[in-house]
Fold this sequence. Notes:
The chain is an alpha/beta fold. It has 15 helices and 30 strands. The chain has four domains: about 5-115 and about 250-315, FAD/NAD(P)-binding domain (3-Layer(bba) Sandwich); about 130-245, 3-Layer(bba) Sandwich (FAD/NAD(P)-binding domain); about 335-450, FAD/NAD(P)-binding domain; about 455-545, Rhodanese-like domain (Oxidized Rhodanese, domain 1). The protein has a five-stranded parallel beta sheet. A five-stranded parallel beta sheet has the order 9-16-10-11-12, with helices on one face. The chain has a five-stranded antiparallel beta sheet with strand order 21-22-25-24-23. Strand 1, helix 1 (about 10-25) and strand 2 form a beta-alpha-beta unit. The model has no long low-confidence stretch (mean pLDDT about 95).
Amino acid sequence: xxxxxxxxxxxxxxISSAARLRRLDENAKITVFEKxxxxxxxxxxxxxxxxxxxxxxxxxxxxxAQEMMSRYSIDVKLKCEVTAIHRHEKAVSVYDLNxxxxxxxxxxxxxxxxxxxxxxxxxxGADMQGIYTLKDIKDxxxxxxxxxxxxxRRAVVVGGGNIGLEVSENLSRRGIKxxxxxxxxxxxxxxxxxxxxxxxxxxxxNSVALITHTPVVAFHPAEEGIRLExxxxxxxxxxxxxxxxxxxxxxxxxxxxxxxxxxxGGIIVDERQQTTxxxxxxxxxxxxxxxxxGGKILLSMASxxxxxxxxxxxxxxxxxxxxxxxxxxSVVKVFDTTMAxxxxxxxxxxxxxxxxxxxxxxxxxxxxxxxxxxxxxxxxIFDKKAGRILGAQIVGEExxxxxxxxxxxxxxxxxxxxxxxxxELVYAPPFSTAKDVxxxxxxxxxxxxxxxxxxxxxxxxxxxxxxxxxxxxxxxxRDTGTIAGSLHIPLAELRERLEELxxxxxIVTFCRDGKxxxxxERMLKQKGFKTKNLSGxxxxxxxxxxxx
Length: 548
């Protein structure tokens, strides 16, 4: 007997499950209901369409409804919104926006791929003309039309997450003076405040203003366009405002059908993507997932939605696939700077009351003698005793994505921080260095775990009578800047000048990036001195301690 499968939502998770179902069951009737005019449209492309980097027609044509129907024999119903699920009848109510009529459709198995809805904060005046969110092509067209019609010169982006920064970059690319307003202390919630400073610097270098720790109180109409009232009694003026304050799982349909909803607001599913109804599955951004570190989280990633769609289809057709716990990996381009993260931040670890150590590694994307080498900064967070890698954050202009992929794989595979030494990475001068930052992180973590090195961090440096800050760089390097009050003995002279150092005080060594000062630390430790090393060196100390 012919099976009837209905999928609600035609983006990544829904299309993935539909295609997999057809490959596994040639005889089934498969129907996809999508309330917009497009299927398989990557919402992650929308910011780049604003800036003209990509074009709507190129992306919208990647896979049309007609192609889905002809290639997979799947019935794709565009501009058809499922308004209710009747579990006892195993049917759905469908409102056809084309005809204005509502009808019912039966199913044997149902897959929810309803995605997310933009979070629109409860701010007075947020519904006035000129204020937009960005979720789909309809939003994009409205934003583009507003920019062209009103000759937009000034824009404010409310929200400094990944999408907010991508939108701000692309507005700036169009010659629009742009300001980002973020209510928390720093942009990019998947990064710690110190590493997020690189995002601030990238914005400032490209004339995009960033205001943090300052919520928007209200929007007001003004002759100048839109007046934004901030909590500190400041006002901003803009011709357009784009709200990028995150998304929420689109779970209203599931909730109305009395399916299980989790603590995150996402739909509850098991490892097979099955909901609390055995005939209904859910995939993608609307479901809550289990973190590898414990607890439930929401995950908004097309790659995960695609894997979940495949998992749901497998289980519907009798293949016992499972979607495992998720790590949470993120990457964002902020002009020429790439920022990527995996795992937990310090804030998340502190909230969970998990003890940890961290190290900073500064390196290059390729050998310094090969043209085009770019700086790469890696922050590794790990359990000092057991070595478990808890999180990683990387910033640079080149090779960041491939390195975070290696670290994400290492975390999922259960490799400890010291085992990063053993990871074999390709080496040739145009692509990498012989001492890649990942391997270097392994060396440093192993020394910390084995007690060969003790690290202090940029926020722990304080001049006191009980400690000595020792700059072991050359005089030329020191002349570019140093930590006030520090003692200077170049590394090459240190063995001959040990008598200048006290043995009754702690000595904190530092150099440009922490490598030479580690050599100094090891030397002094073996000479009987109480010594620690400044992780990441003076270069990061200077960046992280900048005002703003």
